[in-house]
Structures are given as C-alpha cells and as structure tokens.
Design a protein that fits this description.
CATH architecture of the largest domain: 2-Layer Sandwich
CATH class of the largest domain: Alpha Beta
Oligomer: single chain
Strand content: 25-35%
Number of strands: 29
C-alpha cells in the first residue's frame, strides 16, 4: 500500500507533508531539496519547468511563464497561452504543479502516493473547490479530501500545541494570493469553526503590485516605460517581491532595473511601503471584523491570534493586527508549513468520509486503507467542524414574476449540512424543472453567482405542482441538489448539476493525458 499526503497548493508556493507512524509530521522536500515549491510553470520547447528554476528563468521568457493561477481557479474563461500557441486552463497549470509535487513525493518516500488531501482558502466558492479537485485529477492524483487552509493550520496547532485548555482562536491566514480569517473554538480534541471571512484576491501578490505600481509611475516621470518592456516588467515582479522581504529587516532597499538599455534605480523605504499598502491592511481588518461578527464575539473574547501564510512575516501585518485588536499575534506554527501538516493530519478523517460515502453508495470498501494508515491515538481522536463560507440557493419567481435568489443553505452553517425549502411549478402540464443553483446571500440576483444549472423531468399534471428542493453540502463543501415531488410523495432523485465555471469530465481526461505526456522538470 502506498502513502497518503497533505498538499498546501498555494498561490505562490506549495508544500507537502505526511505523518510518520510515531505521529510526527514530516515535510516532504521537493527534488531540489526545498521544503516549498514555487507554484510557477515555464513552458519551454520540449520541457515544462516547474518551481524555483521556472521562476529563475522567467525573466528570459516572460511570455511562456505562468504563476498566480490559483487566483483564477473556477474561472471557466481563463486561458494561459504560450508563445507557441499552446493553451492551458488554470486547472491544467495547477495540475502540472501537482504532477511535479506528486513525482517528488514518490521519489522521497520511495513509494506510490495513493491519495492526497489538498487545502483551499476557506473563502473559496464551490466552483473553485471543484477546480482544485479537477487539477488533482489532471495530475493523476487521487484527491481524497479538501480542507480549508485555516482549519488545516488549526489542526496543526491543536494536535502539536493545543493542549486540553479551551481556547478561542482567530487564524489570520495571509498567503501569496488569498486571505482568510477564521474564528474557531478549541475544546480538548475538537475544533469548531465559529465564523469565517476573507478575500480570494488579497495576498502578498497585491503587496508586491503596490511596489510595482510605484516604480512604474516614477520611471514614467523620467521618460522610462517599464510596462512596454516584458523582460523588465518580469524582472520588476521578481525584484518587488525581494524588496518587500528585505524591508522586514531593513529600513530601506533599492530596486535596480535595466529598461531597454537604460538603468533605473528606485529607493523604497519601510515607511513608504506602509503608506502604499494601507488600503490592503484596511481590507484585511474588515474581514477580521466580519469573522468576529459572524462568530458573535468581540476581539476581547479571543485567546490568541495565530499567524499563517508567508505574507504574515511582514512586520507591518503584525503591527496592524495588534493595533486593531490589542492582541500580539502568535507565530507558534510555521507560516509556510502548518497548512500542509494540517492537511496530512486530516487524511484519516478524509478516508473515513470516503468509507462512509462508499458504503452508502454500495461501492468499494476503504476499511483496509484506513487500517493500514497507522496513526497514533492523539491524531485519531482529533475532530473538527467547519462551516459554509457562502449561502447556497436557487433562483425562483415571485407571484409578480420577479426573479429572486432564494437561499436554502445559509452561510456559516456547520458542514456537512442539508436544508430544504418548498416551491411550486410555474404552469400546468410542466414536464421539466430547470434550476439555477446560486451562491450568495442577497435576494437580488444581480449580487449572487450562478454556480450551475440542472434539469430534471417531472410527471406532467393539470395543475401547479408543489416540490421540495434539498441542498446539501458535503465534507468537502461540494454542493448536491435533490428534488421531492410533494404531490406524488416521490423522490425524483439527485440532480446532475452542470457547473458553469468548471470543466467537463471529457476535458479533465484530455488534460490528464496531456499532462502525463509532458516532460516536467524542476532542476
């Protein structure tokens, strides 16, 4: 039997871990010996380079270099096109990164990887979660579960350092491209999520961009157009990240560029950087307030604020948290590795969930896999309860024929969850039900997202028919819809949702085959 691992699939860096038989978590290094792998891909002639080497070479071929695709997961129309005309979806690029990581893990472990738990931001919607699972499939990776990143970090903290004391903790997770803040309660061997908020497009990338914007603006004043030079622009992307990191220990740093043969120097001070990113910190504070409001708590009710994600290494992030809450944030877990470790801890729960679901469906038995996955009692005893990050509903018509969003499964309800509501057909002799599944809390359909559509046949009758729609959310926060005919007292079954933002099974298989044929390198 092979190994099961946890993967933190990050916007800028990714990380892997597994749990040894003695219960100790182990970070799996990549083939270059690093604990994290840049989530970067460079498409060269005959070779697809992933990781640090791709990032290092990006300045030479910026048009063939792709990164930050996690921010585009669940966007059906997003395509990266190489200079030679090759086209890749965000799922395919992520699949290439995962394929490299899977190969590195198998090389390090000396065994096959039979399955993995992959982490996602807590604020990821259903389409983005499905895209992550699809990326795993493309990498020929058996995705046995999805877990929210703050929850994974909390598992890592709870199992290693939590103790028996009841605590209320806020996990502040600022990564390379996404931001989550989650309030949760620790009670011995259980973690309960109380409230979550965030921004899927707020991360270190945005802090870098503030520097980039300032550099481009000052260069333009001196008659130098950085934006028109792809090589200089990619060089600036790399140097902006370096400058940001340098300011963690220095008061100022210089960014040196060569634009079309013209040298340019930009001096960045720590105070200047703080002024640049103040709007970003303000957005993060807003999410902190929202998470506490949803949990029904004040900052004074928190016992600890736990920092997770590489971007929390910036002193200004810690300062803004302390200024807002009066609490000095804690760095008790490794910001780059805690999420992957938590995902590895979650493997047993994920296998249990698969076992339960397979037994309910009358399919294969996972008992042997669970028995052979030898985990000590402290890990086995730990459990957690997560919540929905968005409301889920359907579009329906009022008596005045106005279309509205009807929320069935509310936001912030514990998962797995199932809720139902009653509706009626619109005309007599109706033969089909057409349902648009939505994500969002507003009644106005302009402010919600249609995540999928579904159609199901119903027996036609001479009258308006009452039906019951049940929406459930499973352990991975994937949505399922069932319809019950109240007139006939008959279950019409689960609807097959055509997820608007996701790829078809045929497209997934095509990309799986395509990725398997790539010559993927990282050295």
């Amino acid at each position: 039997m092979g190994k099961y691992i946890g993967i933190d699939l990050g916007t800028t860096f990714s990380c892997m871990a597994y749990i040894e038989e003695n219960g100790q978590p182990v970070i799996i290094p990549n083939s270059e010996g690093d604990n994290t792998t840049p989530s970067s891909v460079l498409f060269e002639d005959g070779t697809t380079v992933v990781g640090k080497e791709a990032k290092n070479q990006s300045i030479m071929e910026p048009e063939n270099y792709e990164q930050f695709v996690k921010r585009h997961m669940g966007e059906r129309d997003y395509i990266f096109a190489t200079n030679s005309g090759e086209k890749y979806s965000s799922e395919a690029v992520s699949g290439i990164v995962l394929a490299k990581m899977k190969a590195d893990a198998e090389k390090y472990l000396g065994d096959t990887v039979d399955g993995a738990v992959i982490t996602v931001p807590a604020y990821f919607n259903e389409a983005q979660r499905m895209s992550t699972i699809d990326a795993g499939k493309m990498a020929n990776l058996n995705v046995i579960g999805i877990i929210n990143e703050p929850t994974a970090a909390a598992l890592s903290f709870g199992i290693s350092k939590g103790g028996d004391k009841q605590q209320t903790i806020m996990v502040y997770d600022l990564g390379g491209g996404t931001f989550d803040v989650t309030v949760m309660r620790f009670d011995k061997d259980n973690i309960t999520v109380l409230g979550t908020a965030g921004d899927r497009k707020l991360g270190g990338y945005d802090f870098d961009n503030k520097i980039i914007e300032a550099v481009i603006a000052e260069a333009k004043e001196k008659g130098i157009d950085v934006s028109s030079d792809p090589v200089a622009k990619q060089d600036l992307q790399l140097k902006a990240e370096e400058a940001k990191k340098a300011l963690s220990s220095k008061e100022k740093t210089n960014i040196m560029l060569n634009v079309g043969g013209r040298p340019f120097k930009y001096t960045l001070t720590r105070d200047g950087f703080v002024d640049m990113v103040e709007p970003l910190l303000f957005k993060a504070v807003g999410s902190m307030e929202t998470a506490c409001d949803e949990a029904g708590l004040e900052y004074s009710d928190l016992d600890k604020i736990l920092l997770v994600g590489g971007s929390t290494k910036m002193p200004l992030v810690k300062d803004s948290i302390e200024e807002e809450t009066g609490i000095i944030p804690s760095s008790e877990v490794h910001p780059d590795e805690a999420v992957a470790i938590g995902a590895a801890y979650h493997v047993l729960n994920a296998l249990k969930n698969q076992q339960k679901n397979k037994q309910e469906d009358g399919k294969e038995d996972f008992t042997n896999a669970m028995n052979e996955y030898d985990i000590p009692e402290p890990v086995k005893q730990y459990s957690f309860t997560d919540v929905t990050s968005h409301g889920i509903g359907i579009i329906c018509s009022t008596r005045n024929n106005q279309e509205i969003n009807s929320v069935i499964l509310p936001k912030n309800i514990q998962v797995p969850a199932s809720c139902k509501n009653q509706y009626a057909t619109t005309v007599a002799f109706q033969e089909k039900l057409y349902i648009q599944v939505t994500q969002g809390e507003e009644e106005d359909i302009r402010y919600v997202t249609v995540i999928g559509t579904a159609e199901i046949e119903i027996p036609p009758r001479e009258k308006i028919v009452e039906i019951e729609v049940t929406i459930s959310c499973d352990e991975n926060s994937i949505i399922h819809v069932r319809v019950y005919d109240l007139d006939l007292q008959k279950d019409l079954g689960e609807m097959n949702i055509d997820r608007i933002s996701n790829l078809s099974e045929e497209e997934i298989k095509e990309n799986q085959q395509r990725i398997s044929q790539l010559n993927i390198s990282g050295e």
